[in-house]
Amino acid sequence: MATETLDVVLHPAHPAGVKEAISAVPGIRVIAPATDAEVIVALRSAEILITTSWSDTYLGDGLRWIQSQSAGYEHFPIGTLRRRGITLTSASGVHIVCAEHAIGMLLTLTRDIRDSVVDMTARSWNTHVAEEVAGRTVAVLGLGAIGEAIARRLVNWEVRLIGVTRSPTHYSGVLSDVRPLTALRDACAEASILMVALPAAPETRHIVSSEALDALGTGWVINVSRGSVVDEPGLVERLQDGRLRGAGLDVTEEEPLPLMSPLWGLRNVVITPHMAGLTPRYGERLAEIFAANVSAYRGEGAWLNRVT
Hints:
By secondary structure, the chain is of the alpha/beta class. 30% of the residues lie in helices and 16% in strands. The relative contact order is 0.14.
């Protein structure tokens, strides 16, 4: 018996290559509206939506499954989806390139590459001594796909690694020292580098508090998760007065970062515009997750990254 073709609505806000990669998944037909209004119309006859954006206007009677394009899902109405029996799957794992970005930001700060780039614009040959990562203790906050990828890349770097996660008893990755979120401050007290890869949620808002930053001391913070996880005013204060050595921020509490933010002018800060997860392989990785979940939707396999 021939497999029924599934209509899939692809939200117009998607990275380059996603439409082509999703369209190559067998047994589906991609509907690609050009506007949000057209998304609502398309969902009248389709059960599946691929999106990062959310609007309650998408909640038609026929919607059965939402494949998020992002690892985070805090912007989806989880309770409503559960009540309606709508499956939500995340794209956890699609952004593992964030690990490379995080480590790149760390080295840019510790090796003073940022300062050298600034000097380069002035054609200034300013040789100076820079710090090393080797021999330090690194705390990795969040051990999902991105945090685990950071840990895997650092495990042979002659550093001591501490993992901090929601469910340490369920952890099965490369780290041997794994602690609960309540132990973050103590982990920071032992570390000089904090790598933040924890998804946003009500319980994780400002979990990297002023107290945690003070425990870290004259170290570095790298955040490639969500801006709300870090107490940004506390971070700015400590970067300005030198209590912290530096910060690499791919995310901020308000995005785009306001022009008047003091973060723009700090020589000990590296800022990138929420691009850590962007890669030419984004569409390929999302399509792999989506294809597995198409099989699950047809009752032929297990769901990947199921939230509801």
